[in-house]
Fold this sequence. Notes:
Layout: H1 3-17, H2 24-34, H3 40-51, H4 60-95, H5 102-130, H6 134-149, H7 154-171
Helix pairs in contact: 1-2, 1-4, 3-4, 3-5, 6-7
Amino acid sequence: MNVFTLYLILLKATITTFSGLASLPLVRDELVLHRHVLTDEQLNTAVVVSRTTPGPVGLYIVSVGYYAAGVPGAAAGWFAMTTPALAILLLLRFIGPRREHPRVRRVLESIVAASAGMLFAASIPLARESLNDSITVVIAVITATLLITKKADSVVLIGGAALVTLVAARLA
């Protein structure tokens, strides 16, 4: 895949979604379904790798770039991830003094709601790929319950899920 095209696709994903994993539907649609550069398994792995390492949630874009085009693709992913972060400085300069204005506030709330909906939509195909046995279904239900009802630490949840899976594999 052309690295510049990959950069533009990943930039579009990072700019139009306003939060890390909310870009998943766009990335999946473009790179898995239309261009067939990635598989759902690779996309899922990119998300898992980024969730188990320190850094921003949208860091998975770098892994996606790597899967799509090797080291140059990872660089394109990194540039795509950082471009909006740098552009936001200019936007903050403009919005900062106006953020309490009712119209600006409603626009920002709408953006958050749309991002949440996109994130939910992206989780469905990833869940279908990952929830392939009873142990992973139980882990997903418990994790979702803990995240909804308590302020659970994601590192603890990921580590616990890995530990449960290892113990279950040893017992099987």
